[in-house]
Structures are given as C-alpha cells and as structure tokens.
C-alpha cells in the first residue's frame, strides 16, 4: 500500500468514526430527551406556567405537536387531541404532549396554549423549536410526531400522528407497530365486508332524505346502483363552488343511463354542516339524496373512509364496495365521461387524453398569465396540481409555467390572440 493510499484509509476510518459518534450523540439526545432542552433550560412549561423537568417524560409515549393559533385546521385537530390526551394519559405506559409553537407572537402563543392540557416548549426558545422542525422535517401543520418509550430514536418516530388519530381515534393508543397492524387488519376486514346497507343505515334508520319534500327513500332502493357519497358543508366555499358542477354532471349521467335503461347512478349528501339551517339551505341546491342532519352514521363514514378534507366524493360500485375516493378529481377531469369511475374506465380516458394531447400546442400564451405556458404530462414535470384558473384539482396533462408555479387544465386554457402575445413576454 502506498503512502497516499494509507492516508486515504486513515481519513476514511476517522470519517466513519466521526459519523458513528454523531449518530451515537443523536441517539443519546433522544434517549435522555434533551432534544426538548437547551443549554440553559431542562424544563418544559405546564398549562399553569410551572416548570416541569424534561426527565419526568421518561417512560411515556410522547407526542410532539407542531401547531399554530393562526391556522384554523390546527384548532380543529387540537380539540380532537385534547379529548384523546385525557383518555390516553391514564393508560399505561402514559402519554404526554409537547407543544412546539409556530405562532408569531407571545400573545397568540399564550391564547392558543390556554386550551391545551399538556406541556410546551417556551415561546422564547427559538433555537429548540427550529431544531425540532428541522430534525423531523416538518413541512406543514398540524403535525404530530410520536416517540415510543422503549425507542426514543429519530428513525423510530411515527410521523403520521395527525392522520392516525383522525383515522382510528382513541383506539390507536399506544401507537405501537403491533397496534397499528391490528387496526389496519380490522380496517381491511371492514372494507372487505362493506355493503351499502351497513354503510348508510343504522338500527333506527333505513331511509334517506329528498330535498324539498317529506318523502323518505329506502336505502335498499340504491342497491345495485353506482353511488357517490358527497362530503361537504355550506361553510366550505370549495364545496359550494363544486356543487353546481356536480349537479349538472349528475343530471347528464342520469339522462344517459335512463336512455340505456340497465344501470343507475345516485349521490348521497353526507353533511358536515354545524347547524340544521345551513344543512337545509345547502340541500336545497342539490338534486340528490341526503343523510339526515347530524346523523350518527356521518361520523362513522368519515372515519371509515378516512375523510380529512371536504369537499370529497367517494364512489361505491353496484356491489357496495369502494371504487375510488377520488371522485371529485375525476369529475373535474372527465365530467360525465368519468362514469362509472372504474379503473378500466380511467385507463381508457387517460389513453384518450394522451391521444388528444398529441394535437395540443406544445406551448401557448394564456389570458390569465403573462408568461408562455408549456404543455407537460405527469411523466414530464406535471402531476397532481390545482388549476390556477378554475381552482379545481388536476392530474396528468397541464399547461405550466415553471418560473411562477402556475398550472392550468388544458380545457381551461384561454389562448391569447396573435398580436397580444408580445405583451406577455418574459421580463
């Protein structure tokens, strides 16, 4: 071995030792929970403002809660977490939450923390909050990171705490791998045994409502039909905007199927409205059926289908099984042609779109944007997006401005006439 090779080997050995030492330091930080501490602080704040030693968290399941007062979805999840916290904290091995604030001022921090029964990183400790955000690669809030007492290591952390709590509720505790596997297996069995009747009926109700009438429609009358479950609320502006489009497409699908005479399609409104007046007012705009306001089945459906955002349109096949949870997206992309929303139908429509895209201009100026837009597909820089013209979801082909992050559906393009194009040149 030459002298140069010996030097390289020594450098590599030292480098490997340094990396191993750094990893050991990181593991030690997790083991003694010093990720929550700073050089001059070894405590967290209790709801009353008292100092609680970080060491008191040892042996408990820990939830690191990244949230902020200014963001409404955080408030919604915080209430859910408060209820879960009160349930979890008395069950072995115990549970504690550490709030990591993204608020911009102390008043907002204190106001928000007033509804929290758990601990918090002091608002003034910017470095610790920044380090925790970076360590767990927090890209959005609310976010709940779960640490297990027998393995306080970064790579063992569960990063989907928000989604898991929404999905499984209090059954998710203690968030162990075994518990999650058990819940997933139960969920699979439930979906495998899913029928229209066990989804939409209860012991005290086997009917649906029709707007503007006192008529009650038996759930059994929907068996054998393709059914869309429309999750929305009058307070949801995207839902209110999407409703007339969906109503128009619903009528077109019904008309086509009426002429065929061998199939049928129905939609059931699943309301998340907060009061009955809003529910009734919103239902008046819909030509389809609905579950009664505040029916217990609604919460079951939200949990069963893991509905986290509205509006949403979940499609059930004639056998009552789930065809797709992306009904809203498919309606926006293909309108009435999306029916019956099956994978085979989507494959055919995607193939048609690919063929149509061959005749589209590779680049074009759009009346709503100053830069030239380039036609892209999912495989060439496109992908899921929100159309900047109609504010609805898009998938696959799009006209895109990389410089501005601007994307529109090809069908939403409003080409600028000849001589006007010069006014949209890049500056």
From TrEMBL:
Enzyme Commission number, as recorded: 1.8.1.8
Domain of life: Eukaryota
A Pfam family assignment: C1_2
InterPro entries: C1-like_sf, DC1, Nucleoredoxin-like, Thioredoxin-like_fold, Thioredoxin-like_sf, Thioredoxin_domain
SUPFAM superfamilies assigned to the protein according to its UniProt record, in alphabetical order: Cysteine-rich domain, Thioredoxin-like
Family (UniProt): Belongs to the nucleoredoxin family.
Protein name: protein-disulfide reductase
């Amino acid at each position: 071995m030459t002298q140069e090779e010996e030097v390289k080997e020594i450098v590599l050995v030292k480098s490997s030792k340094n990396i191993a030492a750094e990893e050991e330091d990181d593991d030690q930080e997790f083991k003694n929970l010093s990720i929550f501490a700073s050089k001059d602080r070894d405590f967290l704040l209790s709801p009353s403002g008292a100092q609680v030693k970080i060491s008191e968290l040892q042996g408990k399941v820990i939830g690191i809660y990244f949230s902020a007062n200014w963001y409404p979805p955080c408030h919604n999840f915080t209430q859910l977490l408060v209820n879960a916290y009160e349930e979890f904290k008395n069950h072995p091995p115990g549970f504690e939450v550490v709030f990591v604030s993204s608020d911009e001022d102390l008043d907002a921090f204190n106001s928000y923390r007033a509804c929290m029964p758990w601990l918090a990183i002091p608002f003034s400790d910017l470095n610790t909050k920044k380090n925790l955000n970076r360590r767990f690669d927090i890209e959005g809030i609310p976010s709940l990171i779960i640490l297990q007492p027998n393995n306080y290591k970064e790579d063992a952390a569960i990063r989907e705490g928000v989604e898991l709590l929404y999905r499984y509720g209090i059954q998710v505790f203690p968030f162990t791998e075994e518990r999650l596997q058990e819940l997933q297996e139960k969920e699979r069995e439930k979906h495998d045994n899913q029928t229209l009747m066990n989804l939409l009926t209860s012991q005290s109700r086997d009917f649906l409502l029709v707007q503007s009438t006192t008529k009650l429609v038996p759930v059994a009358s929907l068996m054998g039909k393709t059914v869309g479950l429309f999750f929305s609320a009058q307070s949801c502006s995207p839902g209110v905007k999407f409703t007339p489009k969906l109503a128009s497409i619903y009528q077109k699908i019904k008309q086509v199927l009426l002429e065929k005479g061998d199939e049928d399609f129905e939609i059931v409104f699943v309301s998340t409205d907060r009061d009955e007046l809003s529910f009734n007012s919103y239902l008046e705009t819909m030509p389809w059926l609905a579950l009664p306001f505040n029916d217990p089945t609604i919460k079951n459906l939200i949990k069963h289908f893991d509905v986290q955002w509205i509006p949403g349109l979940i499609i059930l096949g004639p056998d009552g099984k789930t065809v797709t949870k992306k009904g809203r997206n498919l309606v926006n992309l293909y309108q009435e042609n999306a029916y019956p929303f099956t994978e085979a139908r989507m494959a055919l429509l995607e193939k048609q779109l690919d063929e149509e895209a061959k005749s589209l201009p590779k680049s074009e100026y759009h009346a709503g944007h100053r830069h030239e837009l380039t036609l892209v597909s999912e495989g060439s820089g496109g992908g899921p997006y929100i159309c900047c013209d109609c504010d609805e979801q898009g998938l696959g082909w799009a006209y895109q401005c990389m410089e501005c992050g601007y994307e529109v559906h090809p069908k939403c393009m409003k080409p600028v006439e000849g001589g006007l194009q010069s006014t949209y040149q890049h500056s």
